[in-house]
Automatic annotation (TrEMBL):
PANTHER family documented for this protein: HTH-TYPE TRANSCRIPTIONAL REPRESSOR YETL, TRANSCRIPTIONAL REGULATOR, MARR FAMILY
Superkingdom of origin: Bacteria
Record keyword DNA-binding present: yes
Name of protein: DNA-binding transcriptional regulator, MarR family
Organism, scientific name: Algoriphagus alkaliphilus
Lineage: Bacteria, Pseudomonadati, Bacteroidota, Cytophagia, Cytophagales
Length: 201
């Protein structure tokens, strides 16, 4: 059996164990997000939209961008946006660059909910504080490489990480950001950078 979920394969292949471990962590995210959404009488995607709006700039706060970010159809995102508007948690603004679309922003009530809900993954972050710097660096590098490979395989769509940015340079094992004009240590590589500019296809 080639499935990483096969127990025999897991006993033979560390790669399969890692896949199953990542699946367990994904499940923990799903459970924590579900608990947070239940507490706020919202759906998980509605909570995710509120948190995204809290931390990202206006040009990304549009239905089309959100649909790519969360791998959902525009219709599904539009439905969630409508409900969040009805609940008074978000508001619409005209898009000065494109009159056919609009920008979504948080209302004061939405900001309050987003700020509280943004802590939903703290239970996953907490045990990471107990690891050594070396362990954290290895985990981060491994995850960045894995995400980059999944992006190249079109499994993860939107990426705002250094490896996919026009400003990123890699030379003789050194990472460099042309925009910041600075070398980046392994732990300084960004996973969600506000200044990220995607390398054209
Ligand atoms: S602009 Fe941001 S994502 Fe791009 S290389 Fe610099 S730090 Fe990384």
């Amino acid at each position: 059996m080639k499935s990483p979920f096969s127990l025999d394969r897991q006993n033979q292949k560390v790669e399969s164990k890692i896949v199953v471990a990542l699946e367990r962590i994904a499940e923990a995210f799903r459970v924590l997000l579900w608990l947070e959404s239940k507490e706020n009488a919202l759906s998980p995607i509605q909570i995710q939209i509120l948190i995204f709006l809290l931390f990202h700039s206006d040009e990304k706060c549009k239905v089309s961008y959100l649909s790519q970010e969360f791998n959902m159809t525009k219709a599904t995102i539009s439905d969630s946006v409508k409900l969040l508007l009805q609940k008074g948690l978000i508001q619409k603004f005209n898009n000065p660059i494109d009159t056919r679309s609009y920008i979504i922003g948080l209302t004061p009530a939405g900001k309050q909910t987003a700020e509280k809900s943004a802590n939903f993954a703290f239970a996953i972050e907490k045990p990471l504080f107990t690891l050594s710097n070396e362990q954290k660096e290895i985990i981060l590098s491994s995850l960045l490489n894995l995400i980059h490979e999944l992006h190249k395989a079109n499994i993860i769509t939107i990426q705002r990480m250094c490896f996919t940015c026009v400003n990123y340079q890699h030379d003789e094992g050194q990472h460099y950001c042309k925009l910041l004009q600075s070398q980046l240590q392994n732990t300084e590589l960004r996973i969600d950078c506000a200044e990220h500019e995607l390398i054209p296809a």
